[in-house]
Amino acid sequence: xxxxxxxxxxxxxxxxxxxxxxxxxxxxxxxxxxxxxxxxxxxxxxxxxxxxxxxxxxxxxxxxxxxxxxxxxxxxxxxxxxxxxxxxxxxxxxxxxxxxxxxxxxxxxxxxxxxxxxxxxxxxxxxxxxxxxxxx
Length: 136
Ligand SMILES: NC(=O)c1ccc[n+]([C@@H]2O[C@H](COP(=O)([O-])OP(=O)(O)OC[C@H]3O[C@@H](n4cnc5c(N)ncnc54)[C@H](OP(=O)(O)O)[C@@H]3O)[C@@H](O)[C@H]2O)c1
Hints:
Layout: E1 2-4, H1 10-15, E2 19-21, H2 27-34, E3 42-44, H3 49-52, E4 64-66, H4 70-75, E5 79-80, H5 87-98, E6 106-111, H6 117-123, E7 130-134
Parallel strand pairs: 1-2, 3-4, 4-5, 6-7
């Protein structure tokens, strides 16, 4: 597994079992340096250039998945995934958390009395993990 993030998150990626690479210029070369024949699948969580270069990274275009840009990923031959919260699936997810299979990283916790703080952090695009708002 290979993960792209800024340098400050490379140890975190290693802790998840991924080989870290930097995004931006040199992403394709870095990934192909680790996987010279290309990777099995690419998961796009940011769109833009990261999605545009995905066909150069994967062996099969239908294994490109984006949660960001439906039009572009379909044009590239991949798939768009949209998550809809569903009580049954949320139950399955909480079970995986209870069993320790799924770990959820909390970026920050804000009180409901500070309504602007959570969206501000979210909009930085670098808030690793979930942002929690506590309701009194
Ligand atoms: N389709 C769906 O169902 C669905 C569901 C949930 C979320 N989304 C979308 O998914 C996106 C990500 O959500 P999120 O909550 O994870 O956002 P987020 O908390 O803002 O996460 C941003 C992460 O992406 C990394 N990043 C920023 N620019 C990058 C780049 N060019 N290449 C690789 N990594 C980059 C950042 O790492 P560094 O800090 O190391 O730069 C940061 O950790 C959002 O646009 C959201 O709307 C879609």
